[in-house]
Amino acid sequence: MKIAMIGTGYVGLVSGVCFSDFGHEVVCVDKDPAKLEKLTAGEVPIYEPGLEDLMARNVTAGRLSFTGDLAAAVDGAEAVFIAVGTPTRRGDGHADLTYVMDAAAEIAGALTGYAVVVTKSTVPVGTNRQVAEVIARTRPDADFDVASNPEFLREGAAIDDFMRPDRIVVGVESGRAAEVMQAIYRPLYLRDFPIMTTGLESAEMIKYAANAFLATKITFINEIAALCERTGADVKMVSKGMGMDGRIGNKFLHAGPGYGGSCFPKDTSALARIGQEHGMPMQLTETVIKVNAEVKRRMTEKVFDLCGGSVNGRTIAVLGVTFKPNTDDMRDAPSLTIVPALVGNGAKVRVVDPQGAREGKALLPGVTWEDDPYAAAKGADAVVLLTEWNEFRALDLARMAGDMATPAMADLRNIYAPDTVREAGFTAYTAVGRAGFGTE
Fold first, then answer.
1. Cα 179 from Cα 277, distance rounded (Å)
2. Domain 2-198 - what CATH class?
3. Fold matches, 2-198 and 236-440
4. Domain segments of the chain: what residues?
5. Active-site residue among 18, 28, 228, 263?
6. Is 307 designated active site?
7. What pLDDT score was predicted for residue 93?
8. Which residues of the chain have pLDDT under 70?
9. Which of 201, 309, 335, 380 has its CA 20 to 30 A from that of 143?
10. Helix (H, G, I), strand (E, B), or coil: what is residue 315?
């Protein structure tokens, strides 16, 4: 089957490469000449483990190609996926659908036969009907259906998520479209991965509801963590005890500096806006957004307290700035709140991140980038663990403490036990939702 993938951002590129690995002929379209040049040369413009090798294999096999010519890509395609950006719109928090509607109009002009136009981008409820209207208005003679096929890819584990999904959600309104979508996902259907077929609106809502719920779990445990600090409870024990309840589960119950990334901030904001537009305020989601912002500010205060109330003139090593490990994504990362606050209050900040420099050098001005955590911590007054990369999970803490001017740690991911940190020679330690020392 020929598939056209409009957009080679995170979702579009991962989906296009994985579809080609299913055996489909996939043509990925992008308007950015520089990005196309990289892709054609075999370079992946994002960091996602395993993606470069998978892409190269399918390009070599002749199943995957890249072009700036949308019309050529759509010509003869049985499915055309829209995987363009839907950033938060300035001023009202809604998803900006400009790129989606522009893509729909271009696709309409390029259709040469029946095709299913599939929205892969995360879009507000009702968007697929708008896409259908744009196509029908642009090309009244077009033979097409629309479908909603939201993605559920975790950055850092996207290929595994695509190849071994919890579920595939497909929103359609015709049997013909359902057959095309089933043919696309046949390799997963044959391996008994569940394919859930719904109406358009339900598929659109599932994506927002799922992400908002996960964001709520993260925010809930962060609020519990704050209460643990006041009461003497240990949030790691609380999380473990909660997670053993099958009705709750242990995922997304790890206290930390708040959620970030490309999905949760954008999708919770959009869901809140959808609720407002329909006269049904999403009060829980709105509170989650507010509390998450407060969590990030509270993490900044922890670092200040660790340094005796002021960071002016202090040297601080920050380990990790991407919003999570195994990605280079900096979107809405907690570091974008915490690091500028440190720099703005006179701290000399050294940063280490295995993949964060590509975006971080522009987003975090005024910091010094180091290649390893020991170089960053040498002579520093504090070290802040902000992203739980594997490289930071087994540090030689005694070596680090011995090289610091003041051995103090803010473990904002609760990677290390307080006793372990103390025994290594640190004189001050603060974490999230558990007892610290030396900061009174």
1. 34
2. alpha beta
3. yes
4. 2-198, 236-440
5. 263
6. no
7. 73
8. 91, 440
9. 201
10. strand
What confidence tens digit (pLDDT) does each residue in 386-418 have?
A: 999 999 999 999 999 999 999 999 999 999 999
> What is the number of other CB atoms lying within 10 angstroms of the CB of residue 393?
12
Question: Which residue is listed with tokens 């915490």?
Answer: 338
User: At residue 433, what are phi and psi to the nearest 5 degrees?
Assistant: 75, 20
What tokens does 414 get? 């609760």
Within 10 A of 290 (CB to CB), how many other CB atoms are there? 11
pLDDT at 91: 66
Q: What is the pLDDT of residue 439?
A: 82
Instruction: At 132, give phi and psi (nearest 5°).
Output: -60, -40
Cα angle vertex 298, ends 293, 300, to 5°? 105
Backbone angle region of 166, left / alpha / beta, with phi > 0 → left and psi within -120 to 50 → alpha: alpha
DSSP H helices in 96-185: 98-110, 127-138, 158-163, 175-184
Torsion of CA 150, 154, 160, 164, to 10 degrees: -40
CATH of range 236-440; options 3.40.50.150, 3.40.50.720, 3.40.30.10, 3.30.450.20? 3.40.50.720
Eight-class DSSP state of 103: H
Question: Cα 199 from chain centroid?
Answer: 26
